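Subject: for your reference before the review

Hello V.,

The reviewers asked for a structural picture of the protein, and I figured it would be easier to keep everything in one thread rather than splitting it across files. Below is the amino acid sequence we used in the manuscript, unchanged from the supplementary table.
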Amino acid sequence: MSLIAKTYLFLLLGITTIFGGDSWREKQEPVSFKMVLSKSSMGINERIRVDFVMNKDGDNFVPPSFEGFKVVMGPSQAISSSWVNGVRSFSKTFSYTIAPTRKGNLTIAQAQIEIDGTSYKTSAQKVTVTDAVKKPSEDMTAEDVANENLYLVAEVSKTNPYLNEMVTVIYKLYVGADISVTNFRPLDNPTFNNFWNQDIPVTQYTFQSGTYNGKPMQYVALKKVVLYPQKTGELQLEPLALDVTAEVPTNRRDFFGGRLYAQTNKTVTAGNRTIQVKPLPEAGKPASFSGAVGKFDFFVRTSKNILNANESLQAVVEVNGNGNLKLFKVPELKLPAALEVYEPEFEEKITTNLSGMRGKISNSYTVVPAYKGKYPIPSVAFSYFDPSLEKYITLDATPVVVNVIEGPTYNENPKNENNTVTTATKQAVAENNAFGFIKTKTTLVPLVQSAFFNGKTFWLLYILPFALLLLTVLTHRFITTKKTDQASALSKRSQRLAKKFLSEAKGKKANKDAFYVALEKGLQLYLKGKLKLDNADFNKENIYNIFNKKSISKETTGLLITLLEHCEAARYSPFTAVEIEADYLNAISAISQLDTQL
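And here is what came back from the structure prediction:
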């Protein structure tokens, strides 16, 4: 062997030693050998495809007897092998096309093969053969296959809830094994009229195994909504409609024997769903009931019980638990007249998920006693309806006594014998000789003309109109300038207000879903506060009507409605960075315009 050949061989062995580690070895996976059916239920005039798939090459393949079937085509053999990141992937498939010879529950027996000297068998599979179908599978178009393998279903947790009882709706797209979904977009979103509603964001679309009409299928949850009915009787849930792009296998094959796929679009809808809402029972309804439905705890607490006069304390009335926390008011606290009480500060900490609203709401009162003494805070009652027990429950907070140890003593106004508050005696309005008589005669003195026209009074009256005219002009200019400054200041304030409500969205532009959730939250907070809307009244129709009454421009109205629609559509449709930036700037402009006009 020549020196050059030896050197080349040495280098080749060195490179093999260096790079021939685990990253270039074939990945050792457990041996897999299984039977895959194109479908498990068929008409007697249809055909099915049976694949026997292994992840390692084998010998002595023994197919099943296919009792109850006749082999129409096969076996055909396909092998695929690839290297990805130094890992080898191998697959070998024996395929048959078979047709049933009789109806009933038929069984395809085990197949057998030897791999590395070991015998492996598949599991037997059952096939249900029914009466002949109108269109056999081999004659079906891509649209026909999609129609039989795509279903959109609205799963409602409860169809007969009580008023204000939580209901969840999950929209699931079921997909058959014969097709694959490549894209979908919403065509029509339900509005949930007569419901308080909250979307639960779906952050990742993951397919799971399930069953639809007794047929094994894959499904993905596309939309989750929590509802609280605000009206009794029969309520309709509008359907969700989707345009779905699917890839459907055909009977054609490529040069290597692989199946070719056809792409088709199908519109699927969940259909109308009806919910029958029951009224809350009148029997046993407490006087302290204000509409709370769920399971709650209730208490009243004070920041301190012992203090001096003119010191302050906080009295908090709190409701916490699981239920319609945003749809009722916290009970009011009644305090003695000797305690000075300020308007309460409302606070809520609520999260909403598929188990409903959970958290707490509270009113915090600032109390300042002016006098020494002991002041009991009367017991406060809170009632709610528990739908699981179907009865009302009343909770009484423990009474609290405030002890003011230092300060002046409280006395009521003194009263006379008639039990009326005394007042000072009125003083006389007039006394004798308080007014003089008006004289009816006087002595007239002639006016000297020259003294008037040459005097200061004449020139003052002469100059006064010109001075008033000049003053009017200057005043008008001052008012105009002030209005311009005020408009400019208002515009700047509106810009700051808009950026305040949209600050969270600004920091999440890189994440489309998080950005539109934050954008929708900012718009909702602003509109609810500005228009004084409850959650139950917050919908596009109400907003549009209020804007009309307040004479808001059509441009501003259209911009806000469009932004709210974009927030809904963003959960299903792709949005580019340019569109996200445009929606952020449009949101600032819309809030600024609306704030200025209001």
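For the response letter, the relevant points are probably these. Residues 456 and 462 are 10 Å apart (CA to CA). Confidence is low (pLDDT under 50) at residues 1-26, 412-437.

Happy to draft the paragraph if you're swamped.

O.
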